[in-house]
C-alpha cells in the first residue's frame, strides 16, 4: 500500500514538473478564448487572473520561455498586452514584473553563455523587451491631476508607487539586454524629445525616472551619452518664474535633479554646463517637493567638479544658496547636503581671503543665532514667550549643525597662514565656550548639536585645540554632571581622548575627567542589569569613553587610573547580563 502511494506521489510530481509545458501549449487558446475578449470588454478580473497564471508559467520555467517556441512568443505577447492594459490601478502590470525579471535573468545567466546560445536568444527577445520598455514607461507615468498646484501636495495612487518601486530591477535587466546605448536612445526617442511638438511632461518624468534607475549600470558600462537634451530640460525648468514651479512640475523637476545627481561626473565634464546646473539646483532647493533631490545633486556635482566650480561667479551662486537656507527651513539632512557641497568647493578656492570671506558669509547667520541665544535670559524668555524661546533654540541648534558640517569637510592647510580652519576656530570656540557655560545646555537638542560641532572640529583640526584641552574637558564633564541625561557630553569626551589620549602630559587631566564621569549619580546608579536596560544610551556612552581611555592612553596613565577602571569592570560584570546594545563588557575585552 505504501509502495503504491509512493508511486502515485512520484507520478504527481512528474505531472507537476511537466505542467508548465502543458499550460504553455494552451496559451494560444487562453489568449484567443479568454484574454482578447477580456481586453475588449475591460474585464480586469479575468485579465488579472490570466496575467498571474501566465507569469507563474514563466517564473517556474524561464528556460522553457527562452527556447522561443511559437507558444513562448504568444505568451510573451499576451503578457505585453496585459502590461499595456490601461487599468485604473497598476496591479495587473505589477504582477508581470517578476516574469520579465526571471526571463531576463535566465537569458543573461552563465548557463546560457556556456551553450553559446545567448546571442540567438537575445536577438529573438530584444524586440519583446523594447516593446516592454515602451509599455512600462507608459504605465509608469504619473498623471498631472494627482498634484495640487497650490501646495504641491501629491496624491499618487499606492499601486502606482508600488509599481514604480518594483521597476528598478526590471529596468536594469532591460538595459543589460539591450545595451546601455540602445536603452538611452530608446528613452530619448520619445515625443518629448522632439522640438516640433508640445512637451509631454509626464512622459519626460517617466523617462528621467527610468534613466535614474539604470544610472549605476550605465556608468559601469562607461558609455557616456549626449546630455544636450538633459541640459535643455535643465534650462527650461529653471528659466521660468519660481511661482510657476509648483505641483506636477516640481515632481518633474525632482526627477531631472535625480538624473543630474546620478550622472554628475559625466555631465559636469563640460564646463559650460556648470552655471546652468547650479542655477537649476538653486531654484529647486527652494521647493519642498524637489529640495531633497536638488540638495543631493548639488553635493554630488560639487564633489565631481570642484576644480571648475570654484570660479568666483559660481562660488557666488553657492554662497547665495547657503545664505538662503534660513529662509527655507528644511530637514537637517538637506541642510547638511547643501553646506557640505559649499564647503567642498571652498576647499578648492586658491585665494585664501576669498575663502575666509565666503566662510564668514556662509556661517554668519549661524553665529548670529547662537549669540542671540547666549545673550537671552533662558528662564525669562521661556516663561514670557515660549514660542520665541523654542525658535531661538531651533536656530542655534541648526547653526551649530552647520558649523559641524563645515568642520567635517574643511581640510587643514599645510600652511598656517592659509588655514581657514584656524580663522574659523578663532570665532567658534569662544562662542561655544559661552554656550557650554550657559543654562541653555539643558536643552537636549542644543547640547547634541553643540557636542556634534565640537567633535567634528576636533576630528578635523584637533591640533589647534591642544592648548584648550583643559577648558574643553572641563566644559564637557561639568555639563554632564549638571545634565546627566545628556550622554552626548561623555561621547564627545571620548572623541577628545581618541585624538589626544597618547599625550602623556595630559594624563592627569584625562584621569580627572574619567573620575568626574564615574562619580556622576547616573553612572553610580548603574548597579543592576535592570537599570542598565533602562539606560542603554548612557551605558553605551560610558562604555565608549572607558574603552577609548584604555585603548588610547599610555599604560602609565591607565595604571594610574586603576581604581576607576576597577569600578568600571565591576559595572561591566553587572551589565554583561543586560539586554541592551551598549554593554560595558566591551571594556573588559579592550583591557
UniProtKB/TrEMBL annotation:
Signal peptide: none annotated. Transmembrane segments: none annotated. GO terms for biological process: protein import into nucleus. It comes from the Eukaryota. SUPFAM superfamilies: ARM repeat (SSF48371). Coiled coil: none annotated. InterPro entries: ARM-like (IPR011989), ARM-type_fold (IPR016024), Importin_beta-like_NTR (IPR051345), TPR_TNPO3_IPO13_2nd (IPR057941). This is Uncharacterized protein. It comes from Aristolochia fimbriata.
Amino acid at each position: 500500500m505504501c509502495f503504491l502511494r509512493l508511486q502515485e506521489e512520484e507520478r504527481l510530481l512528474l505531472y507537476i514538473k511537466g505542467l508548465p509545458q502543458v499550460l504553455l501549449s494552451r496559451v494560444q487558446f487562453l489568449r484567443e478564448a479568454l484574454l482578447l475578449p477580456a481586453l475588449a470588454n475591460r474585464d480586469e478580473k479575468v485579465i488579472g487572473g490570466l496575467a498571474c497564471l501566465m507569469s507563474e508559467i514563466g517564473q517556474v520555467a524561464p528556460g522553457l520561455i527562452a527556447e522561443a517556441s511559437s507558444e513562448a512568443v504568444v505568451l510573451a505577447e499576451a503578457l505585453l498586452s496585459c502590461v499595456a492594459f490601461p487599468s485604473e490601478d497598476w496591479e495587473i502590470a505589477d504582477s508581470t514584473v517578476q516574469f520579465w525579471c526571471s526571463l531576463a535573468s535566465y537569458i543573461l545567466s552563465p548557463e546560457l553563455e556556456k551553450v553559446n546560445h545567448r546571442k540567438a536568444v537575445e536577438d529573438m527577445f530584444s524586440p519583446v523587451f523594447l516593446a516592454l520598455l515602451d509599455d512600462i514607461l507608459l504605465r509608469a507615468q504619473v498623471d498631472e491631476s494627482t498634484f495640487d498646484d497650490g501646495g504641491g501636495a501629491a496624491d499618487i495612487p499606492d499601486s502606482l508607487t508600488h509599481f514604480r518601486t518594483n521597476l528598478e530591477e526590471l529596468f536594469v535587466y532591460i538595459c543589460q539586454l539591450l545595451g546601455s546605448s540602445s536603452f538611452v536612445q530608446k528613452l530619448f526617442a520619445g515625443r518629448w524629445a522632439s522640438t516640433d511638438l508640445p512637451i509631454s511632461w509626464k512622459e519626460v518624468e517617466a523617462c528621467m525616472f527610468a534613466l535614474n534607475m539604470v544610472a549605476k549600470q550605465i556608468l559601469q558600462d562607461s558609455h557616456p551619452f549626449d546630455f544636450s537634451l538633459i541640459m535643455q530640460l535643465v534650462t527650461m525648468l529653471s528659466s521660468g518664474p519660481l511661482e510657476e514651479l509648483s505641483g506636477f512640475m516640481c515632481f518633474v523637476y525632482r526627477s531631472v535633479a535625480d538624473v543630474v545627481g546620478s550622472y554628475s561626473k559625466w555631465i559636469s565634464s563640460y564646463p559650460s554646463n556648470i552655471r546652468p546646473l547650479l542655477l537649476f539646483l538653486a531654484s529647486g532647493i527652494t521647493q519642498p517637493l524637489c529640495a531633497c533631490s536638488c540638495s543631493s545633486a548639488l553635493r554630488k556635482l560639487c564633489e565631481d567638479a570642484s576644480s571648475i566650480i570654484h570660479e568666483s561667479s559660481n562660488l557666488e551662486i553657492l554662497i547665495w544658496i547657503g545664505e538662503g537656507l534660513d529662509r527655507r527651513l528644511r530637514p537637517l539632512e538637506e541642510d547638511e547636503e547643501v553646506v557640505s557641497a559649499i564647503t567642498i568647493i571652498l576647499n578648492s578656492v586658491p585665494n585664501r581671503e576669498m575663502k575666509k570671506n565666503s566662510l564668514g558669509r556662509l556661517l554668519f547667520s549661524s553665529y548670529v543665532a547662537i549669540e542671540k541665544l547666549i545673550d537671552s535670559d533662558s528662564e525669562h524668555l521661556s516663561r514670557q514667550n515660549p514660542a520665541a524661546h523654542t525658535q531661538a533654540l531651533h536656530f542655534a541648534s541648526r547653526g551649530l549643525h552647520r558649523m559641524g558640517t563645515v568642520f567635517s569637510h574643511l581640510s587643514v592647510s599645510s600652511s598656517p597662514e592659509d588655514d581657514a580652519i584656524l580663522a574659523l576656530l578663532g570665532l567658534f570656540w569662544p562662542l561655544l565656550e559661552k554656550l557650554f557655560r550657559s543654562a541653555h545646555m539643558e536643552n537636549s537638542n542644543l547640547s547634541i548639536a553643540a557636542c556634534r560641532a565640537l567633535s567634528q572640529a576636533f576630528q578635523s583640526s584637533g591640533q589647534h585645540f591642544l592648548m584648550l584641552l583643559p577648558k574643553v574637558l572641563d566644559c564637557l564633564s561639568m555639563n554632564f554632571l549638571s545634565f546627566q541625561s545628556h550622554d552626548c557630553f561623555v561621547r564627545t569626551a571620548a572623541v577628545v581622548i581618541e585624538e589626544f589620549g597618547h599625550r602623556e602630559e595630559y594624563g592627569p587631566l584625562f584621569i580627572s575627567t574619567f573620575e568626574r564621569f564615574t562619580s556622576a549619580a547616573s553612572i553610580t546608579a548603574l548597579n543592576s542589569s535592570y537599570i542598565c536596560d533602562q539606560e542603554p544610551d548612557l551605558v553605551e556612552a560610558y562604555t565608549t569613553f572607558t574603552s577609548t581611555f584604555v585603548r588610547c592612553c599610555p599604560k602609565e596613565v591607565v595604571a594610574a587610573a586603576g581604581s576607576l577602571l576597577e569600578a568600571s569592570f565591576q559595572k561591566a560584570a553587572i551589565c554583561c547580563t543586560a539586554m541592551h546594545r551598549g554593554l560595558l563588557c566591551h571594556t573588559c575585552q579592550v583591557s
